[in-house]
């Protein structure tokens, strides 16, 4: 899938809408996590490597404005797409000045949301060149991979696992995190499946590039 390896956090307190977004975006190939309040959004953002935040502005516990301002002040690279019922021009201007990259008023057209997400992902990979380390390079938006500047064909799970390893920039990534990246937290998959994918990746990019960290998981050399 073209969006495999792209991590989204949906911060939406309306559970039915959050569920629809989660299932719909997952079917597009995105890796999706959902929270229902602003405090949880900041916690997830601190602990995970997300590419885009779909942020409801009127969140409980911590308002979405506080979340957006916190990301802006910390220099976070996470792209923010605000989803809100406040559709006036002044509201949109305020949201963008708080640090949002885009603003979509509710109710919104789902296809427009997908187009906005694709645009944000292109902007992210265009600015940062995707993920790269040790001769490996990925462009999540285009679902392309290179090893020593030679194109490499990766299956969706391989792409998602390698993207998660490259995001860590040399730090070890645990098997649970790799499972979550490739299969989602709601899918019951054995950790042995991750080892199989890593074995396949090593054949394609070189065994020495993916180092086993015993008792933890793997890292990119």
Distance between the termini: 27 Å
Number of helices: 8
Stretches where pLDDT is under 50 for at least 5 consecutive residues are: none
Instruction: Assign a percent range to the helix content.
Output: 40-55%
Q: SSE string, helix = H, strand = E?
A: EHEHEHEHEHEEEEHEHHEE
Radius of gyration of CA atoms, rounded to a whole number: 18 Å
> How is the biggest beta sheet arranged?
5 strands, parallel
Architecture overview:
The structure is a single chain. With 221 residues, this protein is α/β, with parallel strands linked by helices. It contains eight helices and twelve strands. The strands form three sheets. A five-stranded parallel β-sheet has the order 2-1-3-4-5, sandwiched between helices. Strands 6-7-8-9 form a four-stranded antiparallel β-sheet, with helices on one face. Strands 10-12-11 form a three-stranded antiparallel β-sheet. Strand 11 and strand 12 form a beta hairpin. The mean pLDDT is 84.
Concise overview:
With 221 residues, the chain is α/β, with parallel strands linked by helices. It has 8 helices and 12 strands.
Task: Please tag this protein with its features.
8 helices; single chain; 5-stranded parallel sheet; 221 residues; 4-stranded antiparallel sheet; elongated; alpha/beta
């Amino acid at each position: 899938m073209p969006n495999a390896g792209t991590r989204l956090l949906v911060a939406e307190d309306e559970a039915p809408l959050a569920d629809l977004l989660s299932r719909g975006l997952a079917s597009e190939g995105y890796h999706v996590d959902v929270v229902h309040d602003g405090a949880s959004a900041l916690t997830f953002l601190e602990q995970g490597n997300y590419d885009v935040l779909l942020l409801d502005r009127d969140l409980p516990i911590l308002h979405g404005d506080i979340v957006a301002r916190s990301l802006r002040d910390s220099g976070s690279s996470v792209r923010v797409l605000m989803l809100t019922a406040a559709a006036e021009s002044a509201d949109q201007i305020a949201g963008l000045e708080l640090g949002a990259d885009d603003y979509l008023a509710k109710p919104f057209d789902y296809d427009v949301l997908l187009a906005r997400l694709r645009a944000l992902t292109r902007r992210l990979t265009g600015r940062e060149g995707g993920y790269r380390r040790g001769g490996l390079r990925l462009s999540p938006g285009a679902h392309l991979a290179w090893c020593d500047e030679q194109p490499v064909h990766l299956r969706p799970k391989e792409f998602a696992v390698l993207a998660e390893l490259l995001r860590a920039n040399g730090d070890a990534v645990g098997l649970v995190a790799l499972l979550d990246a490739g299969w989602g937290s709601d899918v019951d998959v054995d950790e042995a499946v991750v080892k199989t994918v890593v074995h396949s990746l090593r054949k394609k990019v070189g065994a020495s590039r993916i180092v086993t960290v015993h008792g933890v998981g793997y890292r990119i050399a």
